[in-house]
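This part of the workshop introduces the protein records we will be handling. An example says more than a description, so a record of this kind follows.
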Amino acid sequence: MGIFSFFSKEKKETLDKGLEKTKESFFGKITRAVAGKSKVDDEVLDNLEEVLVTSDVGVDTTLNIIKRIETRVARDKYVTTAELNNILREEIAALLIENNTEDTEGFVIPEGKKPYVIMVVGVNGVGKTTTIGKLAYQFKEAGKKVYLGAADTFRAAAVEQLVIWGERVGVPVVKQQMGSDPASVAFDTLSSAVANDADVVLIDTAGRLHNKKGLMDELSKIKRVMQKVVPDAPHDVMLVLDGSTGQNAFEQAKQFTIATEVTSMAITKLDGTAKGGVVIGISDQFKIPVRYIGLGEGLEDLQPFNRAEFVNSLFGTSNLNS
């Protein structure tokens, strides 16, 4: 079962607040793009294309959205700029629905997967370790027994940070000396988790992307060693991306999906940026489920990504004619 079975009022308020800067920037640009126009014509579409690209939606996804709007305009013959808000909302929502699996309200722990092993990857500075801590908190709140593995052994600060999170959340952290073999840490973590009947294991990995082959070899080794303890581990490889970096997040996603088999994503730091459009582009381009979005510093500010709620929050009650 999933962690959450509903999208609460509190989560909706956090989502609205977290996307506020993106929404203000996005609709400010759209308002300027349609100024003085009564209907959606080629000039408005050109301006809208620029708005989407500069809002970090990404070129390919932008062209897809524009093509959809052109189809609507051709079908309906006359589309006013006042209708553009709703058309955009509908087409972006449709795009996300077509290109992703169904919303899972967070991580699903399938029956018979115990412990459920999540290997977390991503470059340094994206909020990877913080995301692991928040996930540990949410799994624990859901009544799960959680273990953390500090397999980012190349930075003492990474191990220390994970230990602090473990103490804060109240879950055990398995670690070794700095410079230890990451695969050895993962092996010890899974061995302890199995021995203590844990439900979920989160493995932190080194945030280096200096060499794709080096990264691939390291992650492959971690997987092989974990499978000596849990034969089908890891059950999920989650890539953490910093949404505030815009197009750089796209590039990181490209590099990591080449280096390893990423099965889910978490996009962090959306609350302090106007670059929330990156969620739309990444969801569309990589066809990998965005499981979580980070909307603040609080333990509960890591939310399951609900596509419909995201689009509704982004568009809200915005009125292009206001």
